[in-house]
Amino acid sequence: MFGKGLRLFKLFGFSVEVDASWLIIAVLVTWSLAVGFFPELYPDLPTATYWWMGGIGALGLFASIVVHEFSHSLVARRHGIEMRGIRLFIFGGVAQMDDEPEDAMGELLMAIAGPIASIAISLAALGLYVLGEQFNWAVPVMAVLVYLAVINAVLAAFNMIPAFPLDGGRVLRAILWQIKGNLQWATRVATYAGTAFAIFLMIMGILSLFQGQIFGIWWILLGLFLRWASEGSYQQVLVRRVLGKEPVESVMRTEVHTVPPSISIEDLVEDHIYRHHFKMFPVVENGTILGCVSTQMVKDVPREEWARHTVGEVMEPCSDDNSIPPDTDALKALKRMTQDGRSRLLVVEDGRLRGVISLKDVSRLISLKLELEEQADSTGE
After folding, report:
1. DSSP characters for 9-77?
2. pTM over 0.85
3. How many domains does the chain have?
4. Which of 60, 107, 173, 263 has the smallest count of CB within 10 Å of its CB?
5. In this structure, is residue 349 part of a structural domain?
6. Same domain for 148 and 12
7. Domain of 256?
């Protein structure tokens, strides 16, 4: 979401990654606990103790968010949704899934799993606090337990606000979906609620800044993020619906400009790249697809050596990374291209080049279908 993350560990088949932006919130949480929360509730402790408590509290928050997102992921996997892992970033965490639930009940169960986990952690911390009172546990331990009980209750309450894509917004979408049986309509209504809440947060942030509260910036950023995430989620639903089960062969270009492996890189650039303006060309010899060559591969060769090296020397052989069968869903091809940063994929069947599918072609199809549907809706057809 914010670039490549650092993979921390893997559990239950899910990888947990942390974005560099998480360091910001980790520092802020540790600082706020060490200089504000703990000294106010438990005065007269050594300064170093407050900082240790702040660090442990931040780790507890980290673990709580991981458990929250794991709960979503486990329920999602139970309902057949492929999960890529869990990502922690400046605004918390997100379970990265490649698809939407098949039905409203699956959406509802997946949405409430996270808040239920947060409530369970809060109650567990509260139970340990009661136990600690009976056995006279150290004050720092009791303070951290209070924080974990409070913060997890807050996490559960905030996430249950009916504003998409928060968990509460997903619950709202599931209910609307069940009532009307229309995922797109339910997502649109839940998105409106999410946008309204995001605007509310931004207004509150601006008012806080006028009152001299610097943390108003945080509310503005959170509101901007929620609005972006809400609208992005709705666009994903639209893309999934308009592409449906559209096969790659119905979207691909069959008239493809290919190059032989024997030409020099210089000829490739002058006679093909500059003339046809493509970033990737299939490499074909005697009707057999060998692989592809891209502008990035050309850039890896010094300019003065272009005439001495051939396309066959630098090309990338056919693989699952750069090619796809023609009967594959276009949505899967779109995900592959966006995740791998490729603008085009070879469409290959039985060692033969059938065509090329590009991001531009898929985007054009999505735009065309949405335009036609909007026209049909406006005329009542």
Report:
1. EEETTEEEEE-TTHHHHHHHHHHHIIIIIHHHHS-S--HHHHHHHHHHHHHHHHHHHHHHHHHHHHHHH
2. no
3. 2
4. 263
5. yes
6. yes
7. 248-366
